[in-house]
Amino acid sequence: MKNRQILVTRSSMPDFEEYANEIREIWNSRWLTNMGVKHQTLEKDLKKYLKVSEINLFSNGHLALECILKAMDLKGEVITTPFTFASTTHAIVRCGLIPVFCDINKEDYTIDVSRIESLITDKTCAIVPVHVYGNVCDVYEIEKIAKKYNLKVIYDAAHTFGEKIDGIGIGNFGDASMFSFHATKVFNTIEGGAVAYKDKVLNRILYDIKNFGITGPETVEYIGGNAKMNEFQAAMGICNLRHIDDEILKRKKVVEKYRERLGSTNGIKLPPLQANVESNYAYFPVVFDGYKYNRDKMFEILKENNIIARKYFYPLVNDFNCYKYKYSSKDTPVAKHISERVLTLPLYSDLELEVVDNICDIILGR
Ligand code: T4K
In the predicted model, is pLDDT for residue 305 greater than 80? Predict the structure, then answer.
């Protein structure tokens, strides 16, 4: 096993024949992109699977987030967290908005809702909370605050494909939710993403914004860009969606194994179990806090054994070179604490349980 490298994740793919069959029509029609048949089919299939009323597909999750922020015509400050992938903050800034960092809570690492109100000013226009690792935010409290101050809520739901809160599809909360369909995600379209929302007015705007703002054969209404999902991506999505429930079930087994082996070890904190949430088992972040090895040492020990875990999410966004002139991780102490101690362990549907056992043996020093 030492000879085989185990990476933090591994893309889920259909059988080659299944994909080849799916793309045959594309070969015949020569319609490769610009919202073709596969794009339309995937949109319809996803609406049903995610139990949302409206959805728009994009070339990736990052541009999906940028497009929905643009479509809402927001101006001013946006409250968000620094404990996330670079994309969340970059999307806000690239849309001309000002991120205001709120700390996370130490239970599930999502936005600390008790701190949001103190960050609201007369310039605040929206909250962009992150359902980080698939742990869901306190959507009910966020909704209350947003209503009280008339703020938009756009969830970064990149990690929460297919999850449900109290039986409701996660894409139904807030004004919009962005999903990532990157190769490393529970559900992938190679690269890809989507925005789910309720307001039908956004349908046309999002559709146009991702296609250069073109609204008709001779009219261009918005300063849009190019964020279209192509037909090969959509075909991969159609195939992967057929197997998604099975994929999630296999991930669940891997997670159960990790929990069984690492669950009762002092100094090792496992991800929370959220009782009202139907999980997709996207990531398995472990916090080493007071364990015999610190996070960095654990990372090295695993690496020596050819296990490549990842420090998602370290460094914090407010410590990035491009942001630290203006922000400081000292203002988000919980995020800083977790970010310095967390390690995301390998997790994917066909990770053998014997390998999980082996990883746990290494962590436990056996
Ligand atoms: N918001 C949040 C909270 C996000 O986490 C992300 C993306 C976004 C927004 C933006 O969504 P997208 O625009 O990406 O749709 C990876 C992913 O590229 C990124 O999508 C993801 N978050 C982030 C958490 O992880 P890296 O730089 O760590 O990827 P990389 O290339 O090191 O890959 C990690 C592992 O995945 C590899 O060791 C092996 C495996 N892998 C990778 C690729 C590229 C595969 O099995 N197949 C592959 O094709 O960012």
Answer: yes
Q: Atom 38 in ligand 1: which residue has the minimum CA distance? A: 7
- Tell me the pLDDT of the chain averaged across its residues: 97
Taking 80 as the threshold, does the pLDDT of residue 349 lie above it? Answer: yes
Whether residues 158 and 55 fall in one domain: yes
- Per DSSP, the three-state class of 176 is strand
Return the pLDDT at 164: 98
Q: What is the CA radius of gyration of the chain?
A: 21
> Ligand 1 centroid vs 184 CA: distance in angstroms?
5
Domain count, the chain: 2
**Statement to judge: residues 203 and 299 lie in one domain:** no
Q: Does some domain include residue 151? A: yes
Is the pLDDT at 2 greater than 70, yes or no? Answer: no
Residue numbers of the domain that contains 72: 16-242
The backbone torsions φ and ψ at residue 333, rounded to the nearest 5 degrees and listed phi first, read: -60, -35
Q: Is the CB of 13 under 6 A from ligand 1?
A: no
DSSP 3-state assignment of 193?
A: strand
- Contact status, residue 59 vs residue 227, Cβ threshold 8 Å: yes
